[in-house]
Amino acid sequence: MEPRMNLMANELGAKIGKRFYNVSLAIEQSSLPKATQNLVMLRVSQINGCGYCVDFHSKEAAAAGETAVRLSLVAAWRESTVFTDAERAALALAEEGTRLADAYLGVSDETWAQVREHYDDDQIAALVYLVAMINAANRLGVIVRNQGGSYEPGMFADLSN
User: Fold this and answer.
1) Which Pfam families match (predicted)?
2) Residue 49 class from Cβ within 10 Å (0-12 exposed, 13-18 middle, 19+ buried)?
């Protein structure tokens, strides 16, 4: 399966992509723990089947110091002992916010209460936007068939310029 289009090679695609990146940068710079951000982005990318995003987020998380055990177990976080209660709440929100068609109520009140227990309002705002943005990024990657395997950590560091 070959990629259909390089959105960043298109003038309009690059213009939109830079703005998309800047929203993501604001989330990244929030007080939501970076490890939590990485776990959420990886889990949502796994659910959505975006090979490029799984490659990207697993390598970025590893480069930031995430352990191989936690990266391997994020797909089975409910059956794992390596995640904190706060991370579990964030992963539950990420899954429920991603699987909207599978859960007619969307994010459950129970999950929302768990998130409220562990995060302040700014962190929750960052988490909600993070789930929305990674879902959008996954859809972009799947639509244009971006392939996983070639990402190198930090290769988009110059996009904010």
Assistant:
1) CMD
2) exposed
- H or E stretch at 116: helix 109-118
Q: Is 105 exposed, middle or buried (0-12, 13-18, 19+ CB in 10 A)?
A: exposed
Please give the torsion angle defined by the CA atoms of residues 128, 57, 34 and 154, in that order, rounded to the nearest 10 degrees.
-130
- pLDDT at position 75 is 97
Q: Set out the domains of the chain in order of their start, with CATH numbers.
A: 33-151 (1.20.1290.10)
Q: Mean pLDDT, to the nearest integer, of 22-46?
A: 97
Residue type present at position 88: R
Question: pTM score, two decimals?
Answer: 0.91
Query: How many CB atoms within 10 Å of residue 70?
Result: 19
